[in-house]
Design goal:
InterPro entries: DUF5790 (IPR043808). This is DUF5790 family protein. It holds the Pfam family DUF5790. The structure is a single chain. Helix content is 82%, strand content 0%. With 137 residues, it is mainly α. It has one domain.
Length: 137
């Protein structure tokens, strides 16, 4: 085997290691951007709308989706180049973070729907209460 072949194999090995590190670093960055459980569980607000707005803010995934995209990009590139000896752990980690982001985004959307609905519901109930008071007079 020639020296250039050894150098190329060594370079490819280094590149594969760096690609794995890039995927792992991007996944760690994505996880770091996810909300922590306490911020989602503990609520502060003067009323239901305040609590819902706080919850919606707590459910912000920040740049987690961007970091996940980077991880998927480097993973796909490494996989296509057959650079990873064993990529099952990376694939599982990517799927896990992707599922977490989707769950948080779904919850945020549901909270957003409630945030839009609650003021209308309050107004409707106030109207119904005042209509009931008018009938008694």
């Amino acid at each position: 085997m020639s020296q250039s072949t050894l150098d190329n194999d060594e370079l490819f090995g280094e590149a594969a290691s760096e690609m794995r590190e890039d995927v792992e670093a991007s996944l760690a960055d994505a996880r770091a951007e996810l909300p922590d459980s306490d911020s989602v569980w503990e609520a502060e607000g003067d009323n239901v709308l305040g609590v819902l707005n706080g919850l919606r803010s707590a459910l912000d995934v920040g740049a987690a989706a961007d970091h996940l995209r980077d991880a998927k990009k480097w993973f796909t590139m490494g996989q296509r180049a057959d650079a990873f000896d064993d990529a099952d752990d990376l694939e599982e980690a990517i799927a896990e973070v992707e599922e977490l982001i989707e769950t948080i985004e779904d919850a945020s959307e549901q909270v957003g729907d409630l945030t839009a609905t609650i003021p209308d519901l309050k107004s409707t109930l106030e109207d119904a209460e005042s209509d009931g008071t008018d009938d008694e007079e």
